[in-house]
């Protein structure tokens, strides 16, 4: 399965070192949808490149798109393509049967309330020791499917490519359109 990640990227970093595409940024986690850094690190990925870019730029909704919006901690935002092994198991929170089995309601899965989503993720992580992560829908567009990978999935992940993003990229223009970012 091909997945995409938008991240602050250090092009000189080794593939699984800090600020690389395969690095699980546990030191920076705690506020994300499925973060539980005391138990695991995680990567937020998407099946569609646009979704992970929109997730990164969402907090700038309505602002003017400038190169500064494409930097984090002094590093450029990059788009990585990763391959997850075919035998990696994901808990699909977009599947009604899975929600029923796990006793979850869609409204409580899709919420922005981290007081609900983080304990859900921790419980699923602990109950399903063989699961590589969670599959869920974006709150920006329900047809965009995102994946949260737990750090135990690292051996099942391979870097395909990574490249820095620029304000002139088609993916950035599409994300700007979704978010109402004004082009310079």
Furnish the topology, listing elements before pairings.
Elements lengths: L1 E7 L33 E5 L2 H9 L6 E2 L5 E2 L2 E10 L4 E4 L3 H7 L3 H4 L4 H14 L3 E7 L7 E6 L6 E8 L5 H10 L2 E2 L1
Parallel strand pairs: 3-10, 6-7
Antiparallel strand pairs: 1-5, 2-8, 4-5, 5-9, 7-8
Helix pairs in contact: 1-5
Characterize the largest beta sheet: strand count, sense, and whether it forms a barrel: 4 strands, antiparallel
Note poorly predicted spans: none
State the end-to-end CA separation. 36 Å
Helix content: 10-25%
What's the mean pLDDT score? 94
Number of DSSP E strands = 10
* Element-by-element helix/strand order: EEHEEEEHHHEEEHE
Strand content: 25-35%
Supply the number of structural domains: 1
What would the principal axes of the Cα set say about the shape?
A: globular
What is the radius of gyration computed over CA atoms, rounded to a whole number of angstroms? 16 Å
Look at the helices and sheets and give the structural class: alpha+beta
Tally of helical runs? 5
Structure description:
Helices cover 24% and strands 29% of the residues. With 184 residues, the protein is α+β, with helices and mostly antiparallel strands. The chain has one domain. The strands form 3 sheets. Strands 1, 4, 5 and 9 form a 4-stranded antiparallel β-sheet that branches. A 4-stranded mixed β-sheet has the order 2-8-7-6. A two-stranded parallel ribbon has the order 3-10. Helix 1 crosses helix 5 (170-179). The longest helix is centred in the middle third of the chain and has 14 residues, at 114-127. It is globular. It starts with a strand and ends with a strand. 33% of the residues are buried.
């Amino acid at each position: 399965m091909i997945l995409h990640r938008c991240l602050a990227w250090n092009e000189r970093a080794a593939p699984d070192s800090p600020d690389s595409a395969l690095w699980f940024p546990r030191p920076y986690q705690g506020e994300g949808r499925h973060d539980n850094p005391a138990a695991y690190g995680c990567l937020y990925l998407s099946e569609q490149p646009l979704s992970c870019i929109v997730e990164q730029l969402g907090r700038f909704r309505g602002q003017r798109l400038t190169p500064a919006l494409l930097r984090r901690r002094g590093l450029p935002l990059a788009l990585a393509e990763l391959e997850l092994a075919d035998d990696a198991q994901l808990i699909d929170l977009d599947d009604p049967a899975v929600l029923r089995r796990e006793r979850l309601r869609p409204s409580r899965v899709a919420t922005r309330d981290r007081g609900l989503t983080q304990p859900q993720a921790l419980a699923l992580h602990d109950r399903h020791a063989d699961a590589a992560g969670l599959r869920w829908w974006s709150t920006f567009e329900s047809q965009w499917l995102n994946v949260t990978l737990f750090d135990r999935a690292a051996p099942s992940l391979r870097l395909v490519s990574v490249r820095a993003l620029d304000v002139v990229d088609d993916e950035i223009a599409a994300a700007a359109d979704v978010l109402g970012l004004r082009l310079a």
